[in-house]
Amino acid sequence: MESFELLLGGFAEALTPVNLLYALIGVTLGTLVGVLPGIGPAMTVALLLPITFTVPPASAFIMFAGIYYGGMYGGSTTSILLNTPGESSSMITALEGNKMARRGRAAQALATAAIGSFVAGTIATALLVVAAPAVVSFAIAFGPEDYFALAVLAFTAVSSVLSRSVVRGLASLVLGLAIGLIGIDQQTGQARLTLGIPQLLDGIDVVIVAVGLFAMGEAMYVASRLRHAVPEVVPVGRAWMGRSDWRRSWRPWLRGTALGFPFGALPGGGAEIPTFLSYAAEKRLARGVAREEYGKGAIEGVAGPEAANNASAAGTLVPLLTLGLPTSATAAILLAAFQQYGLQPGPQLFDHNPALVWGMIASLFVGNTMLLVLNLPLAPLWARVLRIPRPYLYAGIVLFAALGVYALNATVVDLVVLYLLGLLGFAMRRFGLPIAPAVIGMILGPMAEIQLRRALAIGAGDVGVLVRSPVAVVLLALSLLALLTPVFRRLLARRAPAAVAHVPREED
Amino acid sequence: MSESGNPTTGPAEKRARWWRPELGLALVVLALGGFVIAGTLEVSAAASRLGVGPRFFPMLVGGAMILVGLCYVADVLRGGRGDPEESEDVDLDAPADWRSVGLVSGVFLGFTAVLDALGWIIAASLLFFGLSVALGAEHRLRAAGVGVLLGISTYLLFVKGLGVTLPGGVLRGVI
């Protein structure tokens, strides 16, 4: 029970008044950006990177973790109260959640989402405590070829799972990899792809890329197709649920957690697949009232996917902390945050910075509890946030994006790069290229290069070194499998046409 | 709205046309691949004796870009199409409003041009006002008021409170 002691130490770190304050700021900001359309936790953490440079790392990560978890809570509020699918991870929640809200059960939908998120988040964080040391002890023997294979798996899995078209996912990935190449080569000091512009020698900062692709891109995309009808927000009071709701919710919560955590931990697993699976499972298991209500607003269809959603967020942290492997855009930004502090997540991080790692993990428990308190009574307040007029919202988002980017180096060149990346983000949205592979490629690409060169140096130029270890072979084989998903998908599609696109219609 | 699946498959869209806007993006990926390779060739290979130098990985990435770019171009030519991203505030049925995009671009680039001269407070207020009007804000006076309020409050919070560097411009010394 060594990790239990370390966790207690982590609580000592997380429960200091200063860190409690950072956790509170984190979860509040996280919920806010989760509720607001157009911005998410990835961009928020990116924007805060330059400002938090003076904050000690433990406090910064406690705040970032709060933003990450808070974003998950906030997303569910939006999808329940607004009848438009927002982030892909809360799309499934909208199916039953919004129908519940329209039937006057918004309070119960919000309550089961918040309490389910709390239950799932807590259990999944406990699983993280157990799983992380196990993965660390396994990964401690990893060589550079294994890390390279891991990166390849992350690239291919994220590209093929996040988009319905693998070639579009890969296009996003290579764009990110190319951006990551710009700047001075870390090993030889050679300038690469800088076009002779001195400002590019340090590479393009991850903050500019993230903010450009997410905030600027979203603002321009919204400008091109703004929904002019005022969004209809279902009015809601305090979130609460009755005895029968509890009876109907607890099992879906647990099942959702069981689905969400492992998928979150897998490269490319993400939150979409487990939320969808949880929705489908609850539908199949529905009996009695639930069966009648399914499709008209069954509480099970909110409880399960919301739990899966939050559990997957905790699952994402397993490969991030133990292997330095980001499996989502937010995780990639968190990885960049670690690098900003000169830290490299991986087995060594647990050895060298136990206070930081365990403080962050302990803060997840703390933040989860705060989020429950913040979300149950304050639901009406968050609902009001949804009524911000859209022109003001997006103008404000761009203003803060410009602020965060200018604050990096105090140069207008960065703002122009921000605009160009915004154009790219706009085009990617317009043509259905997922953003996450680009962000992951940009951040993980340079590390993949270092591991590749290290491995080849050990092998003295022999490429066979890359498949020397069985771990690397398995990982590369899985990568190949990920690239072949369109073949599987075509086979599946032949059986159930357009099952993914028409979730609610998939009657059996 | 979301349940209706792909909304824009009208009869006009089904007709196979040679040029489509998405082809532009695919060609950009392809061209950037060529650019990465060309740019990498300029990097001198004077490198470590063991293992590979600074050219190896960029060549891999450039090669991958060209390969992916070719597949992407082929996919678009064969009639493949990406689904525009769904978002809370996006109406996928609406035709693209290029005037708004142009206005947003103009306002933002204008902001970058005047930022250093006018300073953050004035430039940011103008940015907010311009963008919100471009995006269809109805009460212009209110948009201007919110803009000024945001410009001043962000300046005070970030410069005075958090020590971030923002240009003072013409108001330097006043605030």
TrEMBL record, chain A:
<keyword id="KW-0472">Membrane</keyword>
<feature type="transmembrane region" description="Helical">
    <location>
        <begin position="391"/>
        <end position="410"/>
    </location>
</feature>
<feature type="transmembrane region" description="Helical">
    <location>
        <begin position="317"/>
        <end position="338"/>
    </location>
</feature>
<feature type="transmembrane region" description="Helical">
    <location>
        <begin position="358"/>
        <end position="379"/>
    </location>
</feature>
<feature type="transmembrane region" description="Helical">
    <location>
        <begin position="20"/>
        <end position="39"/>
    </location>
</feature>
<keyword id="KW-1133">Transmembrane helix</keyword>
<feature type="transmembrane region" description="Helical">
    <location>
        <begin position="45"/>
        <end position="69"/>
    </location>
</feature>
<feature type="transmembrane region" description="Helical">
    <location>
        <begin position="204"/>
        <end position="223"/>
    </location>
</feature>
<dbReference type="InterPro" id="IPR002823">
    <property type="entry name" value="DUF112_TM"/>
</dbReference>
<feature type="domain" description="DUF112">
    <location>
        <begin position="20"/>
        <end position="440"/>
    </location>
</feature>
<feature type="transmembrane region" description="Helical">
    <location>
        <begin position="165"/>
        <end position="184"/>
    </location>
</feature>
<keyword id="KW-0812">Transmembrane</keyword>
<feature type="transmembrane region" description="Helical">
    <location>
        <begin position="416"/>
        <end position="444"/>
    </location>
</feature>
<feature type="transmembrane region" description="Helical">
    <location>
        <begin position="138"/>
        <end position="158"/>
    </location>
</feature>
<feature type="transmembrane region" description="Helical">
    <location>
        <begin position="465"/>
        <end position="488"/>
    </location>
</feature>
<dbReference type="Pfam" id="PF01970">
    <property type="entry name" value="TctA"/>
</dbReference>
<feature type="transmembrane region" description="Helical">
    <location>
        <begin position="109"/>
        <end position="132"/>
    </location>
</feature>
<protein>
    <submittedName>
        <fullName>Tripartite tricarboxylate transporter TctA</fullName>
    </submittedName>
</protein>
TrEMBL record, chain B:
<dbReference type="Pfam" id="PF07331">
    <property type="entry name" value="TctB"/>
</dbReference>
<keyword id="KW-0472">Membrane</keyword>
<feature type="transmembrane region" description="Helical">
    <location>
        <begin position="107"/>
        <end position="129"/>
    </location>
</feature>
<keyword id="KW-0812">Transmembrane</keyword>
<feature type="transmembrane region" description="Helical">
    <location>
        <begin position="56"/>
        <end position="77"/>
    </location>
</feature>
<feature type="transmembrane region" description="Helical">
    <location>
        <begin position="23"/>
        <end position="44"/>
    </location>
</feature>
<feature type="domain" description="DUF1468">
    <location>
        <begin position="25"/>
        <end position="167"/>
    </location>
</feature>
<protein>
    <submittedName>
        <fullName>Membrane protein</fullName>
    </submittedName>
</protein>
<dbReference type="InterPro" id="IPR009936">
    <property type="entry name" value="DUF1468"/>
</dbReference>
<keyword id="KW-1133">Transmembrane helix</keyword>
<feature type="transmembrane region" description="Helical">
    <location>
        <begin position="141"/>
        <end position="158"/>
    </location>
</feature>
